[in-house]
Amino acid sequence: MNYYLNENLLDLLEKDPNQFYRVYQGWVASTIPPQQRERLEWGQRFHQIMRQRLMGLPVDSLLATYPKLKHWVNQLTQNAPEIFEPNPDNCRSWDEQIQVTIGDIVLSSTYDLIIRGYQSAQIIDWTTSSVPNDYLESHCQTQLKLYLLAETDTYLAEEISLTYWLLMDEVSPKCLKFTYSQEQHEIFKDQLEGILSKLREPILIKSSTSTDQGSLAQFLQGQISAKDYVASVPEVEI
């Protein structure tokens, strides 16, 4: 069996292999609280707007319709102009997917933006979710993105960094930047071996109800959008 894992599934495998198998094989009937459901939908809309703008497509009419999205775009325009201003000395790519295969396991992540220069590569991710700094630093999302780029590109680990822009509804955005090193790369490689070894351990999967062809697993792997996943999840009373 081939496994396709992104940072979300990798994190779940590390924390709870039993739950990982239920999710991956589509045996979990998951529910999302209404507030989180709404935030996911807004986040998806914002990523679509950013994609269109980076491609040079018009977005003014959409921003006029959605003041919240306009506010987030303005936050980035004012605080991170390098996202929108091309530099002839750099190569930029957005929504780039990078994969590394280890045996029958494919590790994969999608990058909001990568700016590749002569001697450095900067990963830039934006999110409308509020998360603690220490959580992001240790989370598989940060470590996997840095690891995959170091494994597949010609940059030294020390030449790679990852910058998060955490967009807020009313206050200024938070900027978190993480550098990388060969030592961190080797540490995460060892951590990966430990996490992936759990795929070889016998797991007792408790009986549960099947979902819509594993829509949660598809969402966590980046195969379907947040909007499509949210549409597949039943409404829940809180």
Topology:
Elements: E1 3-5, H1 7-15, H2 17-24, H3 34-54, H4 60-65, H5 67-79, E2 91-102, E3 105-116, E4 121-127, H6 133-138, H7 140-152, E5 160-166, E6 174-179, H8 182-196, H9 215-220, H10 226-232
Parallel strand pairs: 1-3, 4-5
Antiparallel strand pairs: 2-3, 3-4, 5-6
Beta percentage is 15-25%
Low-confidence blocks of residues? 205-213, 229-238
Radius of gyration over all CA atoms, rounded: 19 Å
Provide the CATH topology: Lambda Exonuclease, Chain A
Average pLDDT value? 82
- Write down the secondary-structure element order: EHHHHHEEEHHEEHHH
How many strand units? Answer: 6
Shape: globular
Summarize the structure.
The chain is 44% helix and 20% strand. The protein has helices at 7-15, 17-24, 34-54, 60-65, 67-79, 133-138, 140-152, 182-196, 215-220, 226-232, and strands at residues 3-5, 91-102, 105-116, 121-127, 160-166, 174-179.
Descriptive labels:
44% helix; 10 helices; 238 residues; 6-stranded mixed beta sheet; Lambda Exonuclease, Chain A; 6 strands; alpha/beta
What does this structure look like?
With 238 residues, the protein is α/β, with parallel strands linked by helices. Mean pLDDT is 82; it is low at 205-213 and 229-238. Strands 1, 2, 3, 4, 5 and 6 form a six-stranded mixed beta sheet that branches. The chain has one domain (3-232): Lambda Exonuclease, Chain A (Alpha-Beta Complex). It has ten helices and six strands, in the order E-H-H-H-H-H-E-E-E-H-H-E-E-H-H-H.
